[in-house]
Amino acid sequence: MLVAASLVGYLFLTPSGAVRLAVLVSGHPVKALTVRVLGQKKSEQSPGRQSFLLSPAPYEPVTDIQLKNWVAVRHGIFYLGSYYGYG
Description:
Number of strands: 6
Shape: globular
Low-confidence stretches: none
Strand content: 35-45%
Helix content: 25-40%
Mean pLDDT: 88
Number of helices: 3
Largest sheet: 4 strands, antiparallel
């Protein structure tokens, strides 16, 4: 029970955990566990937003790109991660 609560807390209460969860949900479960989350940059325009760079980035064969840039946005006490774009 404690392990499950800790895992849920990590995935929703930390920015890097939210990014890992977003990578998992996007269809890259192995990368979600093995990827390094680099460069935490806080946005000056949006105080609850942080950008991350993944290394090595998950590869999306449909669009033939690496999914490098991800963002975690704070909503209350929770963070939600999403893909931000190539670049």
